[in-house]
Design brief:
Layout lengths: L1 H11 L4 H12 L3 H17 L4 H11 L2 H8 L9 H16 L2 H4 L2 H4 L2 H9 L7 H18 L4 H7 L2 H11 L4 H40 L4 H8 L14 H12 L5 H18 L8 H23 L7 H19 L8 H23 L9 H14 L7 H20 L1 H16 L12 H12 L3 H9 L2 H16 L10 H20 L1 H6 L1 H17 L6 H17 L10 H15 L2 E4 L8 E4 L1 H4 L2 H18 L6 H7 L2 H11 L7 H17 L1 H9 L2 H7 L3 H8 L2
Antiparallel strand pairs: 1-2
Length: 712
């Protein structure tokens, strides 16, 4: 009776009677031979049709992992049975189990990853149906594991990435599946993939690049979409440059639809972001190609942003922004630029129009969109433009400045979100996974160079002051300064932090000169002055940070003239430490250097200053002038300078070198300091006289100093 009811029960539960019979045989098997025969029948039934999750689980309950494990690792096959048949059966069972996500993440599956990876590159008859079936099942297992939350990490650790690369490069059976799985792993864990298998991934990149260069059919467009995934997170190998550039030149030089052109623009943008212009050849062909890239990018930006109400393809436009940045860099490069002067003029014109479209777009951005990655990307390209060009589009820029200040303030106050935005921007177009070199994580840093130029001009400066930009910049400077203070590892800081601090100093210098009343009345500058005073003594002692020290010293000296009545500057320990450090910076710039064949030394730059004097000299002269202005305002300063022995050592230096070696502007700077010190303090005058000050003044025709020292 029971046997009569069983088929009806199986049918009611949707069971496969044949499979049920085979599972019964498997459960009743008394030895390996019977179990092996039953497994073959089960596997055949499974491959014959789709099975549901319940059936898969019943197969697993009947089989378990023990026998498949033995099949995968056995080295002795029955007589007349090829050894790979047993492994194929084991893999087929695992593939069946892995269809269940829970089983795909089972430790007994994960520990098979190294074995499964070896099957991808194992040699054998390419026409053997059983071997092909095993390869398909292997890919099914690995793909299922990759789909689990921690699967990619296990696959990478198990050597799967290298195996997939080798399988693809071998172009054997299933190589297309290898590529598809590689794409998935790179998308999920790019950094880890490159760390574990860089040589193999670079080999794949070289192969794809060669295919891209040779492709004459639609596959070149598919490769355009694929190649960005295989560009390393650091530097693209130079041997790939030619193939990638040649392939892109053929595509972009043709008349194409947007779906064909856009992937090419995104690939070019990724290369520009990773390599700058290094991947573009020098000469006529390279300059024409670069001009084509930038022109196409500008046209795309204008089409996307000038049409109100149209849907913006943000990933494509962001890629175009990267190409525009490349154009800006090349147009402003004086030496070894890829572009000729007429090309630069033409590109500046088209980029101006595109930047106008960006400004038009940003003027429409409401508060609800300020945290969107595309807005951040748009501010970034505008910042890159303003860093080099503020004279054109002045009216439009001034109109946008209030928005830019509010936007920068919003992101500054939500710094973590701003950093996340920069990641999202990179993900939007430059890299399909994580970015290469990280884009700056705050909008303010992007805008600093442009604001530095704008604070020189009356109109833009007034808008920036009205919108509260100086206060925001002070807070930003103090925040960034904390990153460089003791207790923080400055070796891991990106260069952009120190560059940002220097640019802030330049903006403040502009405000000191053009808006001195603001410095006196805004409390934020008192806080800034306190920070400068407490920070400079340690900064001047640090190797490799002389340029930042010069900015801090000069800014502090200029601000001290304006804030001379502040209690903090009345001979407090902090003020004395600051001026002692400033004297150290100013006094160590030049030394006496012997010259062959001459009895007299010449005035020369000290080694630490020599390499960066082109960037330093304006700050040094401004600092000398500012120190001179502080002496009569701070009565305690002249005695402090005398105790430092700076005036005596300065006269000693001038007396030891040939006057002909000292340039007139240096003579003027030195005389300014010496005269003010002599006028401010009798002891200074006496010390200078003892150091042959009158004779030295006569030799250098320092009439003001000579007269001052001749007085009682």
């Amino acid at each position: 009776m029971a046997s009569d009811c069983e088929p009806a029960l199986n049918q009611a539960e949707g069971r496969n009677p044949t499979l049920e019979r085979y599972l019964g045989a498997l459960r009743e098997a008394k030895n390996d031979s019977e179990q092996f025969a039953a497994l073959l029948l089960v596997t055949k039934a499974v491959k014959a049709g789709d099975i549901d999750a319940k059936t898969r689980r019943r197969i697993f309950d009947a089989v378990g992992f023990t026998f498949p494990n033995r099949l995968l690792t056995t080295k002795e096959a029955p007589d007349g049975c090829p050894d790979h048949v047993l492994r194929a059966l084991g893999v087929a069972l695992l593939a069946c189990f892995c269809s269940d996500p829970e089983l795909a993440a089972h430790p007994q599956v994960l520990n098979k990853i190294p074995i499964l990876s070896t099957f991808l590159t194992a040699r054998g008859d390419p026409d053997d149906a059983a071997r092909r079936s095993m390869i398909d099942d292997t890919y099914q297992c690995l793909t299922a594991v990759a789909g689990t939350p921690r699967g990619p990490r296990h696959l990478i650790a198990g050597g799967t990435v290298s195996a997939l690369c080798q399988a693809y490069l071998g172009h054997g059976y299933g190589f297309d599946q290898a590529l598809a799985l590689l794409v998935g792993l790179l998308a999920a864990a790019e950094t880890q993939c490159w760390k574990e298998a860089e040589p193999d991934l670079l080999a794949v990149l070289r192969g794809l690049s060669e295919d891209f260069q040779k492709a004459e059919d639609a596959s070149k467009f598919e490769l355009c979409q694929l190649l960005p995934l295989f560009l390393p997170p650091t530097t693209v190998p130079p041997e790939c440059y030619r193939d990638l550039q040649a392939g892109l030149a053929r595509i972009l030089g043709s008349k194409l639809s947007s779906w064909q052109r856009n992937p090419a623009l995104k690939l070019a943008a990724r290369l520009a972001h990773a390599c700058g212009s290094d991947w573009i050849p020098a000469g006529s062909s390279g300059s024409k190609f670069l001009a084509l890239l930038v022109n196409l990018a500008c046209v795309e930006v204008r089409l996307a942003l000038e049409e109100t109400g149209t849907e913006v393809k943000e990933d494509v436009v962001t890629a175009c922004y990267a190409l525009m940045e490349l154009g800006i860099q090349e147009c402003t490069r004086c030496e070894q630029s890829l572009l000729k002067e007429p090309q630069k003029v033409q590109l500046v014109s088209v980029m101006k129009e595109a930047i106008g479209a960006v400004i038009h777009y940003l003027l429409q951005v409401g508060s609800e969109k300020q945290k969107e990655p595309f807005v951040f990307a748009s501010v970034r390209i505008l910042g890159a433009w303003l860093a080099e060009e503020t004279s054109s589009l002045r009216k439009e820029v001034c109109q946008l400045l209030p928005f830019l200040v509010r936007y920068a303030k919003t992101l500054y106050e939500e710094a973590e979100e701003a950093n996340d935005l920069s990641q999202q921007v990179a993900n939007l177009a430059i890299s399909p996974t994580t970015p290469g070199p990280t884009w700056p994580g705050d909008a303010l840093r992007l805008l600093l160079p442009g604001w530095c130029h704008l604070t020189v001009e009356d109109g833009p400066r007034e808008i920036l002051i009205k919108e509260g930009a100086p206060s925001l910049l002070c807070k930003y400077f103090l925040q960034q300064w904390e990153l460089t203070s003791p207790g923080h590892d400055t070796s891991v800081l990106p260069d952009s932090v120190e560059i940002g601090l220097q640019t802030c100093c330049h903006i403040f210098l502009n405000l000191v000169v053009t808006a001195p009343g603001l410095i006196k009345r805004d409390a934020c500058f008192t806080s800034l002055m306190n920070t400068l005073m407490t920070s400079l003594p340690a900064l001047v002692q640090q190797q490799g940070r002389l340029l930042l020290a010069a900015n801090v010293a000069t800014l502090g000296l200029l601000m001290a003239r304006l804030l001379s009545t502040s209690p903090a500057l009345q001979g407090t320990p902090a003020s004395r430490g600051f001026f002692a450090a400033a004297i150290l910076f100013l006094s160590q710039s030049h030394v006496a250097r012997a010259t062959p064949g001459s009895d007299q030394a010449v005035l020369a730059l000290s080694p630490e200053y020599e390499g960066i004097w082109a960037d330093l000299q304006e700050l040094w002269f401004l600092g000398m002038q500012a120190f001179t202005g502080c002496v009569p305002l701070l009565p305690w300063l002249a005695p402090a300078a005398l105790r430092s022995r700076w005036p005596q050592e300065l006269l000693q230096l001038l007396g030891s070198v040939s006057p002909n070696s000292v340039k007139p502007e240096m003579v003027a700077a030195y005389q300014g300091v010496l005269v003010e010190l002599a006028r401010a303090n009798r002891l200074c005058r006496e010390a200078m006289r003892l150091q042959a000050g009158e004779e030295t003044a006569s030799h250098y025709r320092m009439a003001a100093l000579e007269q001052c020292l001749s007085e009682p």
